[in-house]
Specification:
By secondary structure, the chain is mostly beta strands. It is built from no helices and 11 strands.
């Protein structure tokens, strides 16, 4: 199974930026889609942004215009650029590879993002 490792989280003030990276141990194009999810304390995990194998991109409404998802297939890496961060963006951010050729999904271990007001 492909391993996913996130990095780039940290603590920033409101209005700041962070770039998260998700490095896969195998080819990310083997997944039907790569996505970034987040889970805040006491809340369910939610999809933040996703990019399909074919390059279709989608965002959760509250991050549109602030977050960008991109990928480097040569490096098997997916990025989440987060700008104009708000305290409500505070969460653990997870990378997910969906629907590999075996049908399995892969999750990273998560990276903490904390935004202070």
């Amino acid at each position: 199974q492909v391993q996913l490792v996130e990095s780039g989280g940290g603590s920033v003030q409101a209005g700041g930026s962070l770039r998260l990276s998700c490095v896969a141990s195998g080819s990310i194009v083997n997944f039907a889609a790569m996505g970034w999810y987040r889970q805040a304390p006491g809340k369910s995990r939610e999809l933040v942004a996703a990019i399909s194998r074919g390059g279709y991109i989608s965002f959760e409404d509250t991050v549109k215009g602030r977050f960008t998802i991109s990928r480097d297939t040569a490096k098997n890496t997916v990025y989440l650029q987060m700008n104009s961060l708000k305290p409500e963006d505070t969460a653990v951010y997870y990378c997910k590879g969906s629907n590999s050729p075996t049908g399995a999904d892969s999750w990273g271990q998560g990276t903490q993002v904390t935004v202070s007001s």
